[in-house]
Batch of 3 targets.
Target 1
Amino acid sequence: MYRVRLFATRHSRAFEWIYKRVEQVMVALDPLFARIGYNRVEHPIVLIEKGVKTLLFDCKMCGQCVLSSTGMSCPMNCPKQLRNGPCGGVRKGGYCEVKPEMKCVWTLGWDGASHMKDGAAKIREVLPPVDRSLQGSSSWLRVSREMAVLNREKRDAARMALADAFPEARLQEPSSAPLADEPPKATTTGRGT
Ligand code: SF4
């Protein structure tokens, strides 16, 4: 759907916004996915992701989506599958060297990135090579799972920092002792214990 692909890069700002919302929903669903089992939800999510992204971006389900870094233009549509900018063969008017009827995905990507909030900076970042072992898997699920793990680690670190601060705070200022339930670490160390 070449025309839809062009539409997506022209409206990359809106798609950037939608993508962020989808990501938030997927991260929020992490406890549910974990309960059901990520391996079980993979297949239905792949079907949804493939359907939506094939229609909008001519997605090839590489499993490591970089649309937010490429102005919403899928680099897997480049006949040479270049992930870090165009080759030296871009034709006059920004057309592809291999498929002259098609705009180079990188000229589209550059236009798309210029409309996006973070696009101009992100398109300059060097992307890693494609990991073919991820082909066909859900990028949405993998990224949201990684983000959920990261969020959990941050929350745990904040809790530990709080637990570490309780005994010290009690020594300095006993009246500052918290009224809420304290983490076990806070009640086993510090003043008189
Ligand atoms: S970068 Fe990969 S996952 Fe993203 S649209 Fe292209 S083929 Fe699909």
Target 2
Amino acid sequence: MSQIILEAKQINKYFEDPVRIKVLSDINFSINKGDFVSLTGKSGCGKSTLLYVLSTMDTAYEGEVFIDQEIMPKSNESFLAKIRNEKIGFVFQFHYLLNEFNVLENVMLPGQKLAKYSKEEIEHRAYEKLKILDIEKLAFKKANQISGGEKQRVAIARALINDPHIIMGDEPTGNLDKKNSDKVFEIFTKLVSELNQTLLIVTHDESFAERTNRIIKMEDGKIIS
Ligand SMILES: Nc1ncnc2c1ncn2[C@@H]1O[C@H](COP(=O)(O)OP(=O)(O)OP(=O)(O)O)[C@@H](O)[C@H]1O
Ligand SMILES: [Mg+2]
């Protein structure tokens, strides 16, 4: 039987804006280990809102989120911060690398925050992640001295540093040209096939979504297929 990594049970969410608007409606699904899932739908349908809920960054919702079969509390921010750092790797449209640090140091940061391994081990692990992404030659370059496509690959290496249960991305290729988008897609595919990594990626890019193993399509806050 496959192992469930992420599960959403009966999620509903409202914004008060200034009147109460329902933005997520009866969301139910689960993602198994090794799944490569894309989350698609028109602008404003609730994709980012759902990703914030699933990643525990937003706790103002009805329903239940399970990560690695464990129910996520709706308070206890320090516990949730630890879950995020340990179990979820994030890749956003913008990479949020720190320019004053080199590539290797940027990849190491979430590892140092987790403090599970020594600095030497984290450095070794960071270097291994750079190798998986074929960018180990950039290790000692400052983050502002590399290209946009390379930055996004560094951001993926950083997302991998703590061996997360799932990688969540919000338009990770949104800021990239076709060539670099394809490269990122290729890397995601490799993570799934070689490391059995689990991925949930929000994307507008239909050609990207069509190549993933499963498409979750949203409309007006609901999952339609
Ligand atoms: N903080 C907020 N307060 C009130 N309404 C919000 C807030 N954030 C988002 N919304 C609304 O909730 C709906 C869903 O927004 P969301 O950002 O999840 O859409 P999306 O599918 O990610 O869109 P896009 O593809 O453009 O990124 C939209 O109607 C948006 O205007
Ligand atoms: Mg969005």
Target 3
Amino acid sequence: MSNVAPIALAELRDLRLAFGEKEILSDLNLQVPSKARLVVLGQSGSGKSTLLRLILGILKPTSGDVFFKGHNVTRMPRRRLNRIRQKIGMVYQYSALISSLSVRDNLALPLEELTRKTRKEIDQLVDEKLTLVGMAEARDKMPSELSGGMRKRIGLARGIIMDPELILYDEPTAGLDPVISSVIDDLIISLSEKIGATSIIVTHEMESAFKIGTHMAMLYKGKIIAEDTPEHFKNTDDPVVSQFISGNTQGPILEDTPLL
Ligand SMILES: Nc1ncnc2c1ncn2[C@@H]1O[C@H](COP(=O)(O)OP(=O)(O)O)[C@@H](O)[C@H]1O
Ligand SMILES: [Mg+2]
């Protein structure tokens, strides 16, 4: 028995990221509790996808640190970083399947490239993941034969193919109709429970956010300005958070945002 607080699975500390002269993130701090489904809210262009790329390690911060399971991945040699990255699954906004490969081959690719598994073992894992997302019968189809919602499910299956401990979702329901969105939300919840993974879900869709999230954080002007439970977010006094989650046109957000 111990009273020590659980260690965050991932942590961003005093992070700053600039593209040339343009500062996208600054003084950003974020803790990702183990087993959480952390929803990161933020306006379009606020740096949400950039944040995920920093956690995935495909982008290096200008300064500050990214920790994964206590390891500082910003200062890690490439080979070790690549090993760590295998424990992080990414589900992209637009599924990002390779159009010339079948569903089976899209899912098999990371296993073929990164593991020494036999073809039989790979096929077994592919089938297992497809079953988890309810798409076992799509195994031999090409991406172009699938609807947007089905492609999204395959994207989810590919995101978990390496049994990640952390799954990053970039606007998983963007562009989907409300019914399919709701199915994908349910799937995100059931996947996180079935495989025991921690998830970070980036979205600006409030209904999804409150349905999925066990924790919430709001990205605004390059910083995490609030990190709390969904209940506290709903009852917040913070004018930015409250305006964002209510979709109110009156408040600090519009005043601060230059109209193009
Ligand atoms: N590789 C890049 N080079 C320069 N600017 C970029 C790059 N990637 C993103 N940006 C800029 O960073 C900002 C945040 O982008 P992004 O993380 O995609 O926002 P979000 O996902 O919240 O919509 C935007 O202003 C975008 O134009
Ligand atoms: Mg984005």
